[in-house]
Amino acid sequence: MACCPCVPSKTPSNRVHLDVGGQRFTTARVTLTAGRAAGSKLAELVAGTPEADGVYFLDRDGEMFLHVLNYLRHGPELFVPPESNSSRLSLRNEAKMLQLPELARMMEEEYAPHQYAVFESDVYQGAPIPRNEKERIAKLRSLEVVDTENVNTDFDNITRCVAAILQVPICLVSLVAEDKQWFKSKTGLEADETSRASSFCAYTLLPEALEDSAVLVVTDARRDVRFMRNPLVLGEPYIQFYAGCPLVTSEGLRIGSLCAIDRVPRHPAPSELGLLINFGYLTVQLLEERHLKLDEESEGEGELQWRGGRQRAEAMVDGRKMAVALVWARPDSMDWPLIYANKVWTQLTGVTVVSPCKFPDRAEISAPGAAGSVESFWDHVRMASADPGQVLELWKMVSAAMAPPPGGRDLRQVGFGTSLQAKRGKARLTARFSPAELPLSENAAVVKNHGLEASRERWQRPKGWADGHWCFVQMVQQKEPEKLPPIVVKQEEPLKVKEETVSMKPPTAPFEDVRLLRLVGQGSFGSVYFSLWSGAAVAVKVIKTVVPTGKSEEVAKTPHFEALLSVTISHPNLVQTFKHGGRVIEMNSEEKAVASMHETWIVQEWCDGGTLRANCKMPRNEDVAFLEAMQICIEISRAGQYLHDIGLIHGDLTANNVLLKSMPVAKGYVCKVCDFGLARVLGESKDIITNTLGTVTHMPPELLSVSEKCSLTQKADVYALGIIAYQVITGQQPFAGMSPPQVVIQVARGRRPSLPPIPAAIEQRFTEVFKSTLSAKPQDRPSFNDLVKFLTGLLHDLGGDEGYIVPSEPQLYRQSGSAPSG
């Protein structure tokens, strides 16, 4: 019988092959496992499994590893250290990382840097001088802050707060002067300044172009060619991680940075950088607080420029009267920890907040006032409404902005407004809550935060704290009540009042925290202004209503109802209303004898892309353009689905009432439905008897009957969507060239718009559904829920959903407990 040859057991080879930073090394295994290398990271490495080619990989500097290998081979007696000071310090750091304590100690003691002359090639040069250095230094010197008091200042609350939330040992407000960087505030560092050559912050000044301002992030300075030889990397404080937000002044000049520093490599989350940007903006407000002046005679006309100039300066002036606080918001309790608040907050409440450098474990704090305790936001303010459920409603408002909408996050998404009451002095406040990672204002949004658009991460909660989210609250004291009572006016005959002269200068808003900048639209309904709300871009809609003399306290029902309704609903495809109010306008004696003028003010989300109708100039019936048309229809259908689910009928859904907002999605914008002036609230019945019509071209047959009163159902909105789909796909106006009576006759005869040829792969299916939306009978039309499912399926079949995010689970959208009646 033949027997199998014996197979010897596989034993490790005596030779080891290593790939270190792209360089190959071969040495005896015992060199890396015994003697001076025993217990080191190298011994641990070669005890493991090599790569498929039998080579062990080490992601370190190959040139520096050669010195390590020579030390292990020859011992300290024959070891020749590197010549330059920076290389010696690098070798010491490398020895510490590889757990070779003898080599590290030898570099620190026997080969100390001061025992060797500094070679010219070793001098670290630092960041280049920016081209606007003269102007930048002049601005810095004009602020008179360098070499002033830098202990126990208002800036310390900012650096302490950033250090706590980002969990870094060092946070600085660094101002870059001619030959040094000086720290106006320092948390976790003893030094007051360093040389400019060693300054990381000097790199935040480059490139000089205003549009290039961005957070500087260095995840591991030892591997960054700009910093690996920096004395602050090779020596104290041994910087490895750095994140610096440039401090951009009102003129658009960068004078330094607010920076977070760690001694270990880190990869910061986009939300952390967003918070750093917001605190950088608050830092600049403090720096310029006593020196910012405006030429009040200048109208500031021309293109809006947030990177520098009058518009930026105006927004910073407005910020002086804002109380700003940072809270940990949560849905299930009134315990919202307050860890930062500015001086205006102290003036309003009498409470000074001292931010912690590290978070205390709230589970270990037994009583208020204990060491390391944190105040609660609701200890010092309360909701203007006595309903305790308002806190939960407020949480829903803010939560809607936390979760990115389909397609990505809008970096200029503002928060949500509410009314608060300061407990001290009974001051009435209007407040804007916004997630801490989103820009506080257009000024803050100038500094880029790449990656936040698609970020879906949640904040890591501090130890012992309940689930929640960091939110900024911006508050201003309100002098007048914001809301007008919903009283109905019965006007028998139209009143003739002289038309107002249109002023180029925007009026002053009735809100303390709103500034109107320029008129962007005007019609019979009123005017729309591009505006700032606590520095964030918004649209302000002003609706004017004529009220007969003798009824000065009454206002029209429609504008107030529109404001009250729109402020209670929230969805990514609806234009969000943040707050509303009103006032009576004084008229001249002749007009005052006839009537008075009331204004309803509505503060809404700013949509920079104009109306969908203005965007429908070219057909979208082929290839990529048709995919865009599908996405438009899906977004409008989602808005309609949400409205119908909560018992509302829009009543006037047209391409003019769909606005476009630039966002980081495939087509470059998102559709948002607006204008709820003709909206209706359904009760127990499924229809409403009405004699009020919207745009005739978009009205279904049942609303165009000769009957005095018609039955309005939710399927009227579905019919309107069919008309909009025709408009989007063809680029033509429905029933073009016809008068309203002619449109009524044509619709009554069964005439409907027809589609041009579309992609053959789905032509039959899409055409059938399109025709069903325009059916004569409401019950034959699909619901918005059916349309969303059908259209998203078609989009997927065409491959058009790549880069177009469809929510896989329900979003938390804001909705009031009960819709307003009307």
UniProtKB/TrEMBL annotation:
InterPro entries: BTB/POZ_dom, GAF, GAF-like_dom_sf, Kinase-like_dom_sf, Prot_kinase_dom, Protein_kinase_ATP_BS, Ser-Thr/Tyr_kinase_cat_dom, SKP1/BTB/POZ_sf. Residues 514-795 form the Protein kinase domain. GO terms for molecular function: ATP binding; protein kinase activity. ATP binds at residue 541. SMART domains: BTB. GO terms for biological process: protein homooligomerization. Keywords: ATP-binding, Nucleotide-binding. The keyword Nucleotide-binding applies. This is Protein kinase domain-containing protein. It comes from Effrenium voratum.
